[in-house]
Amino acid sequence: MEAFETYQTPLSSRYASKEMAHLFSAAVRAQNNRFSTWRKLWLNLAIAEKELGLHQITDEAIAQMKANLDLTPEQFDVAAKEEKKRRHDVMAHVHTFGTVAPAAAGIIHLGATSCYVTDNADLIFLRTGLDYLIHSLSVLISRLSNFAAQYRALPTLGFTHFQPAQLTTVGKRATLWIQELLWDLRNLKRARDDLGFRGVKGTTGTQASFLTLFKGDHDKVIQLDKLVTKLSGFEYAYPVTSQTYSRKVDIDVLAPLASLGATAHKLATDIRLLANLKEVEEPFESTQIGSSAMAYKRNPMRSERVCSLSRHLMVLHQNALMTAGVQWFERTLDDRRVCFLPFSNYANRRVTLPEAFLTADIVLSTLQNISEGLVVYPKVIARRISQELPFMATENIIMEIVKKGGDRQEAHEKIRVLSHEAAYQVKELGLENDLIERVRADPYFDPIKDELDSLLDPDTFIGRAPEQVDAFLKEWVEPALADPALQEAIQKSVKVELSV
């Protein structure tokens, strides 16, 4: 078979959304969407050819085609028998369509090649799949934005190189995730809006068969291409094609999916690290078991799943690159036949494209589930801040001493010595950071002891983080999600429940 729907990742039946699973379903009787799309394409071709003067296409033929766009179980049986006999899926379905639309039997697929239905249908499904992902991503961004707003001002220790750094806030950190997701939303929209239609191009893209049908009338062939493209819901058709649409299109479609995988991997990794710190955790069910041996464990299984699938999603883009690079002349079958799967002649594209969309769909639904149940532990966060903040506050202490008339170099040396003593307590003896107690006990710092508490207030170390969150959500997130279709998706979305 030419079509790429014939492969189904095992994950899709359990975790993918019903819409995405249906779009790329492998179950034979669930493929009504694909074969119905083929029939719509044949109908559009017949309508356009009739409108442009092919009188052998009758009103009765068009009516019968319109009345039989969906396949019945019996028609699936007919198609299966025909394909077994003819060894050609498209011709099997041409025959099957003709049995229920007998007035059209002689004109179905008139002038077309198999890729008229297979490639044009692929483009329809790619565009639909991108729409699904755009909606799901919008919901995720909305959920995380609520989280960022809720914790906009909660101070937390920042990390560079996973070493303690200046403070940020829990909400500000979430905006870093959201910003990358906004870029992914932009990229998915660009890929969707850029998709064209293969159109009516013939066997090797020269439109020779249609030129013959219209007795050498080039204008009518041009009109046919444009009319079928419009009837099929596309703004434009690719100006030139070979037998197929260029496989570089697949590269352009899978690139933003791979980029989304990178974003998801980083986000989920951050949550896994925060779970280890016991500062933020993904949802954990009351009856969930983290380990068969270690009953106390709360493994970040959802985030681990996101990382695992995201790696796979990032790698799939390489397949599209390699497939496009080996398309000889007008087309070859490197994207179609492979022999290492003993149970069928599966195709590279027919594995890669559905897997990419199903995987991206599962990644987004899992992240939505995580975002809807993130648990924050402010007291743990505050305790970690208290362990590190004294060292970070040393510059403020020095500056305050200078304000009181002290010598900066002398103050710096005093703080340096006390800091090393406190570090010894922490690193060598495993005790708490007692730098501030040492400062309080040293008479040199008597002039600023009343200001020490204010100098150690975490809220004074977070800069403009809360204001940055507010501005980011208002100026960037709200406009990005303002589209009515995205708002409708957000309003209709329900809480995602996942088994672990």
Automatic annotation (TrEMBL):
One GO process term, biological-process aspect: 'de novo' IMP biosynthetic process
Record-linked Pfam families: ADSL_C (PF10397), Lyase_1 (PF00206)
**Alphabetically ordered keywords of this record:** Lyase, Purine biosynthesis
Q: Which reaction does it catalyse?
A: (2S)-2-[5-amino-1-(5-phospho-beta-D-ribosyl)imidazole-4-carboxamido]succinate = 5-amino-1-(5-phospho-beta-D-ribosyl)imidazole-4-carboxamide + fumarate; N(6)-(1,2-dicarboxyethyl)-AMP = fumarate + AMP
Which pathway does the UniProt entry assign to this protein? Answer: Purine metabolism; AMP biosynthesis via de novo pathway; AMP from IMP: step 2/2; Purine metabolism; IMP biosynthesis via de novo pathway; 5-amino-1-(5-phospho-D-ribosyl)imidazole-4-carboxamide from 5-amino-1-(5-phospho-D-ribosyl)imidazole-4-carboxylate: step 2/2
Which interval of the chain is the signal sequence? none
Which GO MF terms does the UniProt record name?
(S)-2-(5-amino-1-(5-phospho-D-ribosyl)imidazole-4-carboxamido) succinate lyase (fumarate-forming) activity; N6-(1,2-dicarboxyethyl)AMP AMP-lyase (fumarate-forming) activity
The answer on whether this UniProt entry bears the keyword Lyase reads yes
Q: Which domain of life is it from?
A: Eukaryota
In short, the EC number is 4.3.2.2
Domain (Adenylosuccinate lyase C-terminal): give its ranges.
Answer: 389-473
Q: Which GO terms describe its cellular component?
A: cytosol
The record's annotation in PANTHER family points to: ADENYLOSUCCINATE LYASE
| Quaternary structure and interacting proteins, as annotated | Homotetramer. Residues from neighboring subunits contribute catalytic and substrate-binding residues to each active site.
Give the family per the record: Belongs to the lyase 1 family. Adenylosuccinate lyase subfamily.
- Supply the name of the protein: Adenylosuccinate lyase
Organism, by scientific name, is Mycena indigotica
